[in-house]
Amino acid sequence: MPRTIREDDLIASVADALQFISYFHPADYIENLAAAYRREESPAARDAIGQILRNSRMAAIGRRPICQDTGTANVFVRMGIGARIDSTRSLQAIVDEGVRQAWRAERNPLRASLVADPLFGRKNTGDNTPANLHVEIVEGDTIDVHVAAKGGGSENKARFAALNPNDSVVEWVLRTVEGLGAGWCPPGLVGLGVGGSPDKAMSLAKEALFEPIDLPAIRARGPASRLEEMRLDLCDRINALGIGAQGLGGLTTVLDVKIRTFPVHAASLPVGLIPQCAADRHVHFTLDGSGPARLVPPSLDLWPDLGDAGPATGRRVDLDRLTRDEVATWRAGETLLLSGRLLTGRDAAHLRMTQMLARGEPLPVDLRDRAIYYVGPVDAVGDEAVGPAGPTTATRMDPFVEPLLAEAGLLVMVGKAERGPAAIESIRRHGAAYLITVGGAAYLVSKAIRSSRVLAFPELGMEAIHEFVVADFPVTVAVDAAGASVHREGPSRWRRSIPSAVPA
């Protein structure tokens, strides 16, 4: 007889898994990131990794999201041919109910980021459904499930290429990773899928990211196959690019490179690449009919002792008395501590504001000599002023920089990752500045926010314009008023050349 799995057990397991990964890093990621912290020589990158580790431990203790982008639900189900679900609903509907319960959990609500109708309306679904569901029927009588939450920063950096059979996968990967910038929030992992078809290659790349981090063990014993040789070679050569944590320049950009392959047409070589950010979130469970999954939290002993962070240090800036003359004195790489009123805005709000400017309409918020933070925060719980509130990728706001600086008088922007050449030139021309805070440290960052209120576009949900009151909010000057950029200078300083260990 088929083994029966209760619908409620699957729903509860999916919901619990999504909550679990919102605040617990996998143990192997913690261990390997701690090792990267110990060997990092770049002060800026070491500080960034330290903040990610502190944030990770805080999230684990507080049971609050590691990152404000709690991602989209990716659920991979391998259903045994001898298993059945006691339900009349579709598997998609069952999984979506688990997602809905996870996102609406009262104690730890997650940020609803999914929008329906991707081409036109782009209205938020409100509960982060539907999940991206992948199903495979396999032998056996259990249901094997891998649940992951992927944020937009890393998903936007996914790449695909239909290579010729004799092209070098290694060289394509190196060119591609170097061109990704820091928007995917390194240090993390790179998943590669090679073979099959375009859709198969991308699926393989994502599934590869769920495998344990094992390159340190392979390096210690020596590679046992050409595939392991290739993984080691790619990891070493990607790290030699000098991108480093948060793109600031350093020794570690990736902790591991994962590769899955599949038979392919003789005329084809499809390759999918999906990076995994510092919010490495995934967990596996198996249901056998005995009840919902039981997930075991990592021990708090796994996190390294980073000592007392001590009081924040850096030049103190009063955002309520910000002047162009003061901004002109800031230098790329300098640490600032922001206090006062800080506006927020992301893609949708920026689009609306630039459209209003183009129509000659007044903006709902005066941006003149103000600072805006690219963030979509998680809802607050308890006595929090705001939930986890880390930065989003600034590059997406590049098209809006010139009109907001030239016409609205915006002076300072805060986000993560690099700015493009046109945005940097606009910043230089208008004597403005772009600052960064660490992606992957959202819970830690939120502790510097004292209050929050919505000022405009409340219908946009997490993309509404908020006004935060912050105290000693730590940032680094990424692009100064002269146009100097830490994302240009840092990686070039740490880039090194190493010979390939694998023939091209």
Overview of the structural elements:
With 504 residues, the protein is an alpha/beta fold. The protein folds into three domains: 1-25 and 66-150, no CATH class; 151-281, no CATH class; 315-490, Fe-S hydro-lyase, tartrate dehydratase beta-type, catalytic domain (fumarase, Alpha-Beta Barrel). 32% of the residues lie in helices and 24% in strands. It has 15 helices and 19 strands. Strand 4 (115-116) and strand 5 form a beta hairpin. Helix 1 (7-23) packs across helix 4. The relative contact order is 0.16.
Short structural description:
With 504 residues, the protein is an alpha/beta fold.
Number of helices: 15
How would you sum up the major sheet?
Answer: 5 strands, mixed, barrel
Distance N to C terminus: 52 Å
Q: What portion of residues is helical?
A: 25-40%
State the domain count: 3
Question: What are the key terms here?
Answer:
single chain, fumarase, 19 strands, 24% strand, globular
List the helices and strands and how they pair.
Elements: E1 3-6, H1 7-23, H2 27-39, H3 43-62, E2 72-80, E3 83-86, H4 91-103, E4 115-116, E5 123-124, E6 132-138, E7 143-150, H5 152-155, E8 159-163, H6 169-180, E9 188-196, H7 198-208, H8 215-221, H9 226-239, E10 254-264, E11 269-276, E12 282-287, E13 315-318, H10 324-327, E14 335-344, H11 347-358, E15 371-373, H12 398-406, E16 412-415, H13 421-430, E17 433-436, H14 442-446, E18 449-456, E19 465-479, H15 486-494
Parallel strand pairs: 1-3, 2-6, 9-10, 13-14, 14-15, 15-16, 16-17
Antiparallel strand pairs: 2-7, 4-5, 7-12, 8-11, 9-11, 14-19, 17-19, 18-19
Helix pairs in contact: 1-4, 2-3, 6-9, 12-13
